[in-house]
Specification:
alpha+beta, Alpha-Beta Plaits, two-stranded antiparallel ribbon, 2 helices, 6 strands, about 20% helix, RNA-binding protein, RBM, Nucleotide-bd_a/b_plait_sf
Amino acid sequence: MVKLFIGGFPLDIGEIELAKMFGTHGDISTVKIVRDKKTRICKGYAFIEMPNRAHAENAAEALNGTYMQGKMLTVNINEDAPASPPPTPARKFNKPASPGPNDERKKRPRRIA
């Protein structure tokens, strides 16, 4: 699976129009237009997955820099970013870090009343 990034297209374009445009260059698995979570308005970019890398490269080369309704498209192959390291576990705020085995701090004895 190869993921293409498509940016700069008009906000009123839907998944079907993008699928038709990119479908001429090969099979398409998914089309995902990125929208605002609250308003559901298109943000002007999308991702398309194609099963064949050669077809994806052909589509990127053919469609990058072309115009759609007066707006220039940016089409790039979206290389997967390396996985980020797992997050470090959070400490509880009121609890100090546990002392190491060679820590010389000792607990004071409790006062008997």
